[in-house]
Amino acid sequence: MKRQQTDVSRLKSEGDVNLTRTRTDWSKRNIDGEAQKWLDEDSKYFLHQALSTPCLNVLTSCDGIYIEDIQGRKYMDFHGNNVHQVGFGNHRVIEAIKRQMDDLSFCTRRYTNLPAIRLAKKLAELAPGDLNKVLFCPGGTGAIGVALKLARVATGRFKTVSMWDSFHGASLDSISIGGEEIFRGGVGPLLPGSEHVPPPDPYRCLWGCGGECDLRCARYVEYVLDKEGDVGAVIAEPVRSTPYIPPKGYWEAIRKACDDHGALLIFDEIPHCLGRTGRMFTFEHYDVVPDMVVIGKGLGGGIFPMAALIAREGLDVAADRALGHYTHEKSPVGCAAALATIEYIEEEHLAENAERVGAYALQRMADMMSRHRLIGDVRGLGLLMGMELVKDRETRERASEEAERVMYKALDRGLNFKLSMGNIVTLTPALTITVEQMDEALDILDECLTEVEGE
Ligand SMILES: Cc1ncc(COP(=O)(O)O)c(C=O)c1O
Fold it and tell me: Which pTM was predicted?
């Protein structure tokens, strides 16, 4: 089961790996003695893994759209693990947390508390349709596990359909439905009955749609549901972080297929809920309501680990089971953080800001595409944006090395973002970002692309 050697080219994933030559070169140029001392300590005590340790650098503060390293360099953080809808260190969230810590800092099991009840009610109000029963978890992966269990109990079926290239968390159940080799490989048997289908990636569509989608990929999901006959749930991100933005009609077709075949539709909105795409929930861009939606990450204001499963009323069918049972399930502090976060998003109209600044950025990115041969596509929904770098627009060969060079050059100039699938510059800033700050970031990207193209 043990891998002999890491083949980095296979590790295309959600994030950029820490094993490459460009990364080592960047570190040699940019990490001073003090930072290196701490990185060595980190490397000594943490288990090593491809998407974190050994780490790139040491952070000492974060504020708004920025992070700052131990050498005093500030970066606009267009990565932020998608927790920073309200900006880092949001004062309203911090105040709410502090107040709650003074009153009730923990809620012993068998009891409930007011922030938890208020948050459950708020989420039920925000979510459309009859999505009005919730369960909290201290992390997204756990909430995905709860959704999978509830789907089994509710349908009496254990099979799932999910997507290649997807990510739903790092635990054994969530990597079973996930579609990334870096998580799935080398760990032995995964959950039985976890079927996978191709994601709606317009340029690598197995049916060769080339962006002119005729929904054959959605119809393939229906085909699998029909052939299997006993699938309990289809689970997917409505828009994958890469981003793959399915065309109108895609989710509508899959929703109908689920209904026709007795499968539940579960959306994983852990990274994008609460405004990133310009709507509170990403699926609101489509004319569908899922049976369950899982949210997380920024729910705790980028400070407190919080996630929630929101299920439709009719799925309250497991009263005699323990679905979640997480120690910090109804955390009063986490719930206070989440309530303050949602209040801030609503009062500051952050979803509207995401839509406005995102549309502006996408226009600028399209202009950059007309000038940079490396850019093979730009796409986005609100402030979830991607720029795909290719060696050739015809063959669409991934320009992964070039993308890495662009990324490290951008870091030199104070812009942090991640690469998805090796070659997609993925841009997800705080939703508080202004047009001026967006311009500054895109100017940096523009310069870096020019430099790499000239090398
Ligand atoms: C789509 C998606 N699902 C699930 C998860 C797992 O969430 P957590 O890290 O909070 O367990 C993530 C985290 O990156 C995610 O992006």
Answer: 0.95
